[in-house]
Write a structure and sequence with these properties.
It is built from 2 helices and 15 strands. The chain is mainly beta. It has a 5-stranded antiparallel β-sheet with strand order 1-7-6-8-4, with helices on one face. The radius of gyration is 16 Å and the shape is globular.
């Protein structure tokens, strides 16, 4: 099933950001410990965002695998942003709960939690992978893309991400605030907000003015 949502400059959405803790890195590999929060535990609705690595662990192919890895009973649903329509495809894993959509490199996901879980994410990023960030009318309704921020990406804040993609190509970058289920928007222009810090493991909305095949700069 799908859940309609609109993404404007200060849109309110039913999704929120993850908080992170430990990161252990070796070359492009990592082991990341994240708290996925239920409603009332630093989260308004229990919805978190998650950026998985390009190269996920064996058996992590679709939304069902992700729910099982987090803990099926702990997870209410996993949601995928459909940029062609600015809607969410929802998978619950229960009867009539939709299709277990495949996971893909560069995509962010929403995870709505029934209980709070410290989730261990393992994998690696591929510095050769290019992500298609598309403008409105090019496979995208509004030019909004849900980008899985890389674990070893050098862009440390929203301004650096816009610069790395190409400042003139990007209208804004948007971060979920899970305490309020709202978006913090940074445009990089006058009066366009604060260049918030980026956190490995979080996903961000990137609204494009032009289409770019983006290869993130890595350390």
């Amino acid at each position: 099933m799908t859940k309609k949502t609109f993404f404007g400059a200060m849109a309110v959405v039913t999704a929120v950001a993850l908080t992170g803790s430990a990161l252990v890195a070796s070359n492009m590999g990592f082991k990341l410990n994240y708290t996925l929060s239920q409603s009332g535990a630093g989260s308004n609705s229990g919805t978190n965002t998650l950026a998985l690595p390009d190269n996920r662990q064996t058996g992590m192919a679709d939304a069902k695998n992700l729910m099982d890895d987090i803990g099926f009973a702990n997870t209410q649903n996993v949601q995928k942003f459909l940029k062609a329509s600015d809607t969410l495809q929802v998978y619950t894993g229960r009867k009539g709960g939709g299709t277990a959509f495949p996971l893909a490199a560069g995509e962010g996901y929403f995870v709505r939690m029934a209980t709070t879980v410290n989730y261990i994410v393992v994998g690696s990023d591929d510095p050769a992978v290019a992500y298609s960030l598309t403008q409105s009318g090019v496979g995208s309704n509004s030019g909004t893309n849900f980008f899985a921020y890389n674990y070893h990406q050098t862009a440390a804040d929203a301004k650096a991400l816009m610069d790395d993609i190409g400042f003139a190509n990007v209208q804004n970058v948007q971060k979920f605030l899970k305490a309020s289920d709202t978006l913090q928007v940074y445009t990089g222009r006058k009066g366009g907000g604060t260049a918030f810090a980026l956190t490995p493991g979080e996903a961000y909305f990137v609204r494009m003015a032009t289409t770019v095949n983006y290869t993130p700069s890595h350390y």
